[in-house]
Write the structure tokens for this entry.
Amino acid sequence: MKAFDNGKVTVIPDLSLEIADKEFICLVGPSGCGKSTTLRMIAGLEEITSGELYIDEREVNNVAPKDRDIAMVFQSYALYPHMSVYKNMAFALKLKKMPKDEIDRKVRWAAKILDIEPYLDRKPRALSGGQRQRVALGRAMVRNPKVFLLDEPLSNLDAKLRTEMRSQITSLHQKLQTTFVYVTHDQTEAMTMADRIVVMDKGVIQQVDTPQMLYHEPANMFVAGFIGSPAMNFFDAEVSDSKIRFSGHEFELNESQKATLSAYSGKDIIIGIRPEHFFAANESESTRNICKMTVTTEIAEMTGNESNIYFMINGKRHIASIKTDQKYHSGETVNLGFNCSDVHFFDKGTTKTII
Ligand code: ADP
Ligand code: MG
């Protein structure tokens, strides 16, 4: 638990999480949900209001940050501007009074892995953003920590560099075989890098799972809407026996859906359909388990091999991403299809996943 202002503002009401040795785990969630606070509590930069934190078998609540065997990398790099890259990386080891030749060996080892050997004599200001972030990683690496804590380390980089650094950090994790706890608000970053992802909202863990499971079996509407890009579409719907009705459309449930949803017959629920699960449907063709809906294109975007079609239903904007070379236009009528087995069902009251 974490509260600020003498217990007046509770930011993390209750959080329980076990991170495996050598795991790459991502904390992901919208800005302000408590990711940095959680990471800072692990680092020891923020006091834990109540609860225990263990690294290996050792309770570290009262252990100073420098004695926790962790290394933190920030978005801002936090390099010393007046020191060379070499000195920045050597600094913590010097404080530990490590012998010079050993420091030299470690700095060169890290510089080699991170491909920053040519810049060891430069000052940080003479480096690009990506190079600076690699120096920050190097500074963490030389300390040989048990855990790497990274707080939005790529946020200051442009999109292309971010993608590059993503794979570099993943490969660094593989080389070092150390536990990484990585904070990001960017679900794509989390999905591409993590072994497991912790999805947080308002200080509460919503689900902890692998990227595949979060995508295919989200625990609730928050996770379903947060994971995946563009975000999942939600529609108000009604269950009536073996059918789902929503905004003038209906489709037949399959056997397992029917069984699970029987308790909801006659009730309002929410259904979720991912944009990429829509396809352009042939009007005359009728196939079992394919549901069709006719929509009016509000805006159409072409992204090469894909068209994003935006359409409004009951004042809410929805999106279908269709694999096609065809260009759609605003105002155009489109027949969308989706497979009934790709539909997610949510309890309208609790927002939890039904099936
Ligand atoms: P995130 O990293 O997910 O964006 P943070 O952990 O930084 O979120 O913040 C979570 C919440 O805690 C926010 O509402 C923020 O305003 C609040 N908060 C963070 N630090 C403090 C502080 N020192 N005092 C009071 N509130 C804080
Ligand atoms: Mg943060």
